[in-house]
Each structure stands twice: as structure tokens, then as C-alpha cells.
Design goal:
This protein is α+β, with helices and mostly antiparallel strands. The chain has 20 helices and 11 strands. The structure holds flavin-adenine dinucleotide. Flavin-adenine dinucleotide binds next to strand 3, strand 5 and helix 13.
């Protein structure tokens, strides 16, 4: 069975040496000293390693089962969910007014990574609930907040997000689910939603569905869409559970991965719903939570890759196969371990350098979310909004690629279910699709985010990278970081300039290059993170830190990323500058 050990040391290094959180001016950060975050992360590591990870394969094998409309989660999930609740893990960054602990989103993100790595399908039940909590917290009336938030914070009740319908996922303007106003102020919700994660299960007393639907008078397209709270059981005035609402599960989907999470067809047959936020402003309400939700999915990309990497590394040290070409490392045995071979090293370094870079980027973005929420910092909000499609799209593409790379280390054994490596690849795959498929993330980045506020945020990002490069001028030790970062950043700017010029004449020229741009920017972001991490490691070494081997390994891993991964930026730029023609040359009939 695969193993998982939470990377507490690496997370602590990022929080305290790179992000320097306890000295940051963000409200709530001064409480996050090393001892505190270390204690939280160690406790989370125990739950992840001892309880959640052992259930990962169980969830994959048993899946969720529906009998007579009742969905059963895999063996052990209910007890594990109780443990999650009992430990207060569902309340970390929630509002204390509703039973939360009021910690920064950064801490939630760091802990969330650990739980996702251990068992992504399981952690999604909490993840969806956190999304519903955030929506009601931002858009709910005082009464709605009092009714739903305490139960969602404790996860006594769980939440879902219902957007997708059989004929529309990306293009929600085509939505058919309707909401009819009732005399008492509620709405009758009728329609079918598909692919609803955690739509039905046996781990909570009630499930609060957030449903997008069209109410009369809103016009066509996405403008007419509103957001509704549709509980599985209606809630009485005293907070007790009332009648069962007119909604049901049509079926649970058979799917490629995340078998432990129930993906449901939900039928709403005149169900009672309550408007959340403003009428006909449902899309806007959804968008306010988009940054957090997409950051969470981008995190899934590298969190699953982390678990896969840990196992690939252990296997590479254990499996004897072939000899080191420079001389036997294991002369007493018939062969050397896999890890002596340069191609296995390449593979492991690709995984390690991606995962550690993505962790840094994700935690930095979480700190920007805190800065925007806790300080009302519009620049931080703009910057993180720019970064989100990159984090979601690039990190989930690479996360899947790295899960497959980890599988490759096992050779044929990676393809055999017993080893668990195939599950990592299958689980990681969905993160590229849901919460806006990655092609759509690229469109969002190039079609919307680059131009937001007159390009102010992308210019701020370019300036930030330039400042980082300049900060290492004349520092020979940092040249292997600053120079490739400078070159890659120039390529990114050149690509943005190409879009401005060619895209004006032909929008397809920009859209044909959008996916490459997302990856180009992903590499620049990780290059920036590796430059910051290397600097922090040198500072720690210069200060006489005890863990020299670990810090030197950190620097070497960063060097690998800069030398072996950043050159991909040149390829992406060349593809972008080839424009729309090679992509659009064939008429649809000619395929
Ligand atoms: C396991 C699982 C769990 C899910 N959980 C949820 C959930 O909890 N709640 C929920 O509401 N939904 C959920 N979904 C649905 C998911 O979010 C959608 O499947 C996804 O958004 C894509 O929509 P679609 O499947 O209709 O694909 P389509 O919208 O038909 O898109 C098909 C392809 O075309 C591309 N595409 C579409 N439009 C454009 C365009 N204009 N330009 C370029 N490319 C385009 C897309 O990138 C995609 O690759 C889940 C799906 C799965 C499989």
C-alpha cells in the first residue's frame, strides 16, 4: 500500500524562511509563529498519515454505492469524517462568529494540502462544504448565516455546488434549471444537475446544495442566473431538521478516479430553494468564491503528485535493477537500486522540483488572498486573480504528468492496481477538468485577466519578477537562478506583446496560443518561487543553520528546475508566435 508522510519541514521552510509570515503585516499573521504552525502541521500530519492515507486505496476499490436512493461511502470514511470534525479541522479559517477558529486562509491551505495528498476523494467532502460556507458567508442574509454556517463550519452538514447540466458545463448561459418564485418568498427549483461532487452520502445529517438556476425576468445567457440554497432536509425555525425536500439522486457516476467521492446526478423536482445573494446575480456570487475554489483545485494537482512522488522515491531506492554505469554502488548485491540511473534521477527531479515549486506558489497565493480579504488590498486581489488560472491550469496539468512520471518509476508494477500508483494518476486527472477545464483557464488568462484594469496586474507581475532579478545582481551564487528567470520573463513579456499586436487583428491568434501562455507563465511563476527559495536557503546556510544537507538539496533542486524546466518557455513562445494559422489551417470538414 502506498505511504504518505506530510512534508512538514518543507511547509515550515516556506512559511517562515520564504514568506516570513510572522513578520508580515497581514492581520492574524503575527500569531503564526514557528512553534504554532509546526504544532498544527504535525497534528494534521498524524491524521493524514494514520487515518486518511490508509483509506485512500479502500475508497478507490470500494467506491460509493447507491442502494434505494441511499449512498454509502467506503468503509472507514464515516469514522474518518468524525475524526476530522472532532479535531476541529473543518473550522480552521472559518469565522469565529459561527464556530470557526479564524485562522488565515494560508493555514487552511497548508493543512488542506496534507489531507488532499493523503486522500483526495475524502477531502473533497470538506472542500465542497468549505465552498458552500464561503458563498453563504459572503452573500447570505443574517438569518441564512445563522441557520447554515455553524453546521457547515462543523461539517455536521456538508455542502455542494450545482452548476453543470447535461447539455452545459462551460457555457452556463445554456442552463435550463428554473426557479419559480413562491408567495412565501421561497422558490421552486426544477431541473437536473449532473456530476455533482459529494451530492449524496452517509456522513452528514443534512446536505446544503447551492444550485444555480434561472428565475423569471433575468434575460438570456448567464445574466439571468441566480444562486439558491436548496437543503436536502428543510430546516425548521428552531434549527431542527424538517421535511425532506423534493430532490433526489438519479444515479452515481462510474468514473476514472476519485471513487471515494460520490459524483451524483441530482434531480430537483419542485424543490424548495432560498435565494442566496441578489436575484439574477448568481454568476457574480459564484465568482466571488472562484479564487479560493480554483486555488484549491490547483493544490490538488501538486498534492496528489507529492504522494505519488514519495512512493516513487521509496521504490527507486529499494528496487534493484541494472548497474550504475560509473561503477557498482551495491557490489554485494546482483544489481544497484534504480535511483543510481540518470534517467530515473531526471524523472524524480522533475517531480520533486515541480511539487516544491507549486507548493511555494500556492502558499504565496493563499497569502495574497489573506492580504486581499483581511486588508482590502485591491492590488493583492488583482495579482491573485491573474495568477489563479495559471495555478489551476498549469499545476493540475503538471500534477497529472508527475503522477504518471511516478507511475513510470515502477515500470510494469506501476500499471498494476495493487501498488496504488495508478490511482494517483487516475485521481489527479479530474483536477484538469472540473472547476473550469484547463483550456478554459487559459482562455480566462489570455482573454480576460491579462487586460484586467488596463493590464495593471500583469505589469505589476512583470515588475515583481524584474525586481527579484535585480535583487540578485552581482551575486554569483544566485546567477543560476536570476539569469534563467530574467530570460524566461522576457519571453513571457514578448508573448504578451504578441497577443496585444496580433490579437487585435485576429482574436484567434491570441486564443490559439493561450494554452502555451498559461504554461509559459506557470514556468515563470515557479522560476520566481525557486529563486526566492534558493535565496532563503542561502541566507539560512550563511546564518549557520544546522540542516545544511536539506538546504543544499533545496538549492540543487531549484537549479534543476531553472536548468531543465525553464527552457520550455522558449518552446511555448515559439508556438505562440506561430499564431493561429497552423492551428486553424484545416477546415472542420478536413479533419
Ligand atoms: C468527477 C467530476 C466531478 C465534478 N464535480 C462537479 C460539481 O461538484 N459541481 C458542478 O457543477 N460540476 C461538477 N463537475 C462538472 C465539471 O465542472 C464540468 O465537467 C466541466 O466544467 C466541463 O464542462 P463539460 O463537461 O460540460 O464540458 P464542455 O463545456 O462541453 O467542454 C468540453 C471541452 O471543450 C472545451 N471548451 C468549452 N468551451 C470552450 C471555448 N469557448 N473555447 C475553448 N474550449 C472550450 C473545454 O475546455 C473542454 O475541454 C464535475 C465533473 C466531474 C467529471
Amino acid at each position: 500500500m502506498p505511504r504518505y508522510i506530510a512534508p512538514v519541514k518543507d511547509t515550515q521552510f516556506l512559511l517562515h524562511e520564504v514568506l516570513k509570515i510572522s513578520a508580515a503585516d497581514i492581520p492574524g499573521y503575527s500569531d503564526l509563529d514557528e512553534a504554532f504552525t509546526g504544532a498544527v502541521l504535525e497534528e494534521a500530519a498524524k491524521l493524514a498519515g494514520d487515518v486518511l492515507a490508509p483509506l485512500n486505496m479502500v475508497g478507490d476499490r470500494e467506491g460509493c454505492v447507491m442502494e434505494n436512493g441511499v449512498v454509502r461511502t467506503p468503509t472507514g470514511f464515516r469514522a474518518a469524517f468524525d475524526a476530522l470534525r472532532a479535531g476541529g479541522w473543518t473550522a480552521l479559517d472559518a469565522d469565529p462568529a459561527y464556530g470557526g477558529q479564524g485562522l488565515p486562509h494560508l493555514m487552511h491551505t497548508a493543512v488542506n494540502e496534507t489531507f488532499v495528498s493523503a486522500n483526495m476523494a475524502f477531502q473533497m467532502y470538506q472542500g465542497l462544504t468549505h465552498g458552500a460556507y464561503s458563498a453563504i458567508h459572503v452573500h447570505g442574509s443574517a438569518e441564512q448565516k445563522a441557520t447554515y454556517l455553524p453546521k457547515l463550519v462543523s461539517c455536521e452538514w456538508t455542502g455542494t455546488m450545482n452548476l453543470t447540466e447535461p447539455h452545459c458545463g462551460t457555457d452556463l448561459g445554456l442552463m435550463r434549471t428554473k426557479a419559480e418564485p413562491q408567495a412565501d418568498g421561497s422558490y421552486r427549483i426544477t431541473g437536473q444537475k449532473i456530476f455533482i461532487s459529494a451530492g449524496e452520502h452517509d456522513m452528514a445529517d443534512n446536505i446544503i446544495h447551492l444550485v444555480l438556476a434561472k428565475a423569471p425576468g433575468g434575460g438570456t445567457g448567464t445574466k439571468g442566473i441566480s444562486l439558491f440554497i436548496v437543503p436536502k432536509f428543510l430546516v425548521n425555525e428552531d434549527g431542527s431538521l424538517g421535511a425532506r425536500n423534493a430532490l433526489s439522486v438519479g444515479k452515481i457516476e462510474e468514473k476514472m478516479g476519485i471513487h471515494g467521492n460520490s459524483t451524483c446526478v441530482m434531480n430537483y423536482d419542485g424543490a424548495t430553494g432560498y435565494l442566496l445573494g441578489d436575484l439574477h446575480k448568481g454568476m457574480r456570487a459564484m465568482f466571488t468564491m472562484m479564487n479560493e475554489a480554483r486555488l484549491g483545485v490547483g493544490l490538488q494537482g501538486y498534492a496528489v503528485a507529492e504522494a505519488a512522488y514519495q512512493n516513487a522515491l521509496a521504490y527507486a531506492k529499494d528496487r534493484l535493477q541494472g548497474r550504475d554505469v560509473t561503477g557498482a554502488k551495491n557490489p554485494g548485491e546482483a544489481a544497484d537500486p534504480l535511483i543510481v540511473h540518470p534517467d530515473i534521477r531526471r524523472n524524480l527531479m522533475e517531480q520533486k522540483s515541480f511539487v516544491e515549486g507549486a507548493r511555494a506558489l500556492t502558499l504565496w497565493a493563499a497569502s495574497l488572498i489573506d492580504r486581499s480579504h483581511r486588508m482590502g488590498d485591491a492590488d493583492a486581489e488583482g495579482l491573485v486573480s491573474l495568477m489563479i488560472p495559471v495555478i489551476k491550469g498549469f499545476q493540475t496539468d503538471k500534477g497529472f504528468e508527475m503522477a504518471v512520471a511516478a507511475q513510470q518509476v515502477y515500470g510494469g508494477h506501476g500499471y498494476i492496481e495493487e501498488w496504488g500508483m495508478s490511482q494517483f494518476a487516475r485521481d489527479a486527472r479530474i483536477a484538469m477538468i472540473y472547476e473550469g477545464a484547463n483550456g478554459v483557464q487559459a482562455l480566462d488568462l489570455v482573454g480576460r485577466k491579462l487586460a484586467t484594469d488596463g493590464g495593471k496586474h500583469v505589469m505589476a507581475f512583470f515588475d515583481m519578477v524584474k525586481a527579484e532579478v535585480r535583487a540578485h545582481d552581482g551575486d554569483a551564487r544566485m546567477a543560476g537562478f536570476a539569469e534563467p528567470l530574467k530570460a524566461a520573463s522576457k519571453q513571457l513579456q514578448q508573448a504578451a506583446m504578441y497577443f496585444m499586436q496580433a490579437g487585435m487583428k485576429n482574436p484567434n491568434a491570441a486564443l490559439a496560443g493561450s494554452y502555451d501562455f498559461m504554461h509559459l507563465m506557470g514556468h515563470v511563476c515557479l522560476g520566481l518561487m525557486w529563486t526566492r527559495m534558493a535565496k532563503a536557503a542561502y541566507v539560512a546556510l550563511d546564518g549557520g543553520a544546522a540542516d545544511r544537507d536539506w538546504l543544499e538539496a533545496k538549492i540543487a533542486t531549484g537549479r534543476f528546475y531553472m536548468a531543465r524546466q525553464l527552457p520550455a518557455c522558449g518552446m511555448h513562445l515559439a508556438r505562440i508566435e506561430s499564431g493561429a494559422e497552423p492551428v486553424m489551417a484545416l477546415a472542420a470538414e478536413a479533419f
